[in-house]
Write a structure and sequence with these properties.
By secondary structure, the protein is of the alpha/beta class. The chain is built from 14 helices and 24 strands. The strands form seven sheets. Strands 1, 2, 10, 11, 12, 13 and 24 form a seven-stranded mixed sheet that branches. Strands 7, 16, 17, 18, 19, 22 and 23 form a seven-stranded antiparallel sheet that branches. The protein has a two-stranded antiparallel ribbon with strand order 3-4. Strand 11 and strand 12 form a beta hairpin. The longest helix is centred in the C-terminal third of the chain and has 18 residues. Bound molecules: flavin-adenine dinucleotide.
Length: 533
């Protein structure tokens, strides 16, 4: 990079950063620089749908753990976040869900996010979506984010979906249509049997544009400010500290952990905390790093009577066969995202919208920190979480050193209602596994074992086995109250020349996975920056 001035500097090439890099350079003369701390998205695991199971730990993640979770047996829980071009969208489970319209209406009506009601943002979902199967009022077919049906759901996933129906859940062919509740197969951000991350869908088509510069392996260490305005960034690249300037705006898209971390390192955040670490306060903004909101997923795991799940492909000869099938025909188990099926349902009848989401995995031990079945056997996993937890947590700095990991405290189960709803999720999960369609394949449910019977047992189980569902959000929330970090135009309150445009600006978690909602934020943010609203 020889240039020292750009119009826009985008910090973080994840789900939202890739959207913005594409939209801001399309049909415009604006010079845009995208800086990403991770490397290029070249590893084959990223692009094979099944590769998700190899990506929740290792070099394409930041290696975070939570601080000890007070309400979850003081466990320090692994906290995977993407560190690679595409960010979370390059390592996620490829589940395509949008959330309930009521989530966005709550943002607009109750949480100060004027302009973000469902009827106002739906066009951005539609603009982003390139659905190969579904169309009509609820779907887009021409957008950069490729979305498709699972090519061939595993036998166990089909049995799971039947089991849910035996329990009384209706079959839902489209979780992103008019009705969210029910059970079914997830649609995936997969196109032509390959992952469609934001880097693939948005960034690659823009890479040849003269006005876009993309740098990987670049860790931004500070946002530079002058007279109340963000003017550029300082970053480290190959051991050297450099600076680059933004003539129009700095656009922060480092994710719900990375964005508050970088703001605080730059002296933008709660003054007391920054003083305590010896950081000069540039702008006292108490909401930075507050309100962290995440889904606390609790898994149950069963051993099967035979090799009916994807675990069969752990054996080298089956793995080789699956690889061959994929290479030659783009079919077979490698096209599975593992987390194939699921449900949205109610912990009790008083909830007007689903308050629980389930993820069925046609295998066991696929994710970091999740229990598995005895070695050599095959298993299945079912994960559930409370869709709108009441507890909020924090992101804080460990020190003033940018290389130190931040203190991530999601405060899981910090509200008693979250514990109750979580326990209901686990009970329902066990019931789903106990219906005839799945039961006939199951040798034993190992987690929870048969001693878990009472309400207290289920609550204890949730405390012991819950973990992140990878949906940190809200740590730089938008709104108009004192704890809001950005206004509804995503401008940092009290500072010029900088917006935050990623999952951290959600005022509250949406009731679903968070990739498509974050891409929607990137789409709307691009319009806000370009004045296209
Ligand atoms: C393992 C996993 C599984 C998931 N599964 C699903 C799923 O199936 N479906 C779904 O909808 N959602 C899923 N999610 C969530 C979804 O992917 C995220 O909500 C979404 O990617 C967040 O987008 P973002 O743009 O806010 O942040 P990110 O995509 O995390 O992007 C932030 C980027 O900024 C970079 N960065 C951070 N700090 C700096 C810095 N100082 N300098 C330079 N670069 C920096 C990071 O390396 C990263 O690439 C999953 C997430 C994970 C991690």
């Amino acid at each position: 990079m020889t240039q020292t001035h750009y119009d826009y500097i985008i910090i973080g090439g994840g789900s939202s950063g890739c959207v913005m890099a594409n939209r801001l350079t399309n049909g415009s003369n604006a010079q845009v620089l995208l800086l990403e701390a991770g490397g290029k998205d070249s590893h084959p695991y990223i692009h094979m749908p099944v590769g998700f199971s190899k990506l929740t730990a290792g070099p394409r993640t930041w290696g975070f753990n939570t601080v000890p979770q007070r309400h979850a047996n003081n466990r320090e829980i692994p906290y995977a976040q993407g560190k690679v071009l595409g960010g979370g969208s390059s390592i996620n489970a490829e589940i395509f869900t949008r959330g309930h319209p009521a989530d966005y209406d709550r943002w607009a009506r109750e949480e100060g996010a004027e302009g973000w009601s469902f009827s106002e943002i739906q066009k951005y979902f539609i603009r982003s979506e390139g659905n190969t199967t579904l169309s009509g009022d609820w779907h887009g077919t021409e957008g950069p984010l490729g979305v498709s049906n699972l090519q061939n759901p595993q036998e166990m996933t089909r049995a799971f979906v039947r089991s849910c129906q035996e329990l009384g859940l209706p079959y839902n062919p489209d979780f992103n249509g008019e009705v969210q509740e029910g059970c079914g197969f997830y649609q995936l951000t997969v196109k032509n049997a390959r992952r469609c991350s934001a880097a693939v869908g948005y960034l690659r088509p823009a890479m040849s544009r003269q006005n876009l510069t993309v740098e990987t392996g670049v860790m931004v260490t500070r946002i530079l400010t002058k007279s109340g305005r963000a003017v550029g960034v300082e970053f480290s690249q190959a051991g050297q500290i450099k600076t680059v300037f933004a003539d129009s705006e700095v656009l922060l898209t480092s994710g719900a952990i990375g964005s508050p971390k970088l703001l605080m390192l730059s002296g933008i955040g709660p003054a007391d905390h920054l003083h305590g670490l010896g950081i000069d306060v540039v702008h006292d903004l108490p909401g930075v790093g507050e309100n962290l909101h995440d889904h606390f997923g609790i898994d149950i795991v069963a051993e099967l009577t035979g090799h009916y799940s994807l675990d069969k492909y752990n054996k080298p000869h089956w793995m080789a066969w699956a690889g061959l099938q994929y290479l030659m025909f783009k079919s077979g188990p490698v096209t599975s995202n593992v987390v194939e099926g699921g449900a949205f349902w109610h912990s009790d009848k008083s909830q007007s919208v689903p308050d629980l989401q389930f993820h069925f995995l046609a295998g066991a031990g696929a994710e970091e920190g999740v229990p598995s079945v005895p070695h050599g056997s095959s298993g299945i996993t079912l994960n559930s979480y409370t869709l709108r937890p009441k507890a909020r947590g924090t992101v804080r700095l460990r020190s003033a050193n940018p290389n130190d990991t931040p203190l991530v405290d999601p405060n899981y189960l910090g509200h008693p209602d979250d514990l109750k709803t979580s326990a209901e999720g686990v009970k329902l999960s066990v019931e789903m596994f106990s219906q005839k369609s799945l039961q006939k394949y199951i040798r034993k449910i190992h987690f929870p074992d048969s001693t878990v019977k009472s309400q207290k047992d289920f609550e204890d189980y949730a405390r012991q086995y819950g973990r992140t569902s990878y949906h940190p959000t809200c740590s730089c929330k938008m709104g108009v109250d004192d704890m809001a970090v950005v206004d509804p135009q995503l401008r940092v309150r009290g500072l010029d020349g900088i917006r935050i445009c990623d999952s951290s600006v959600m005022p509250s978690l949406v009731g679903s996975n968070t990739n498509a909602p974050t891409i929607m934020i990137g789409e709307k943010a691009s319009d806000l920056v370009r004045g296209n609203t």
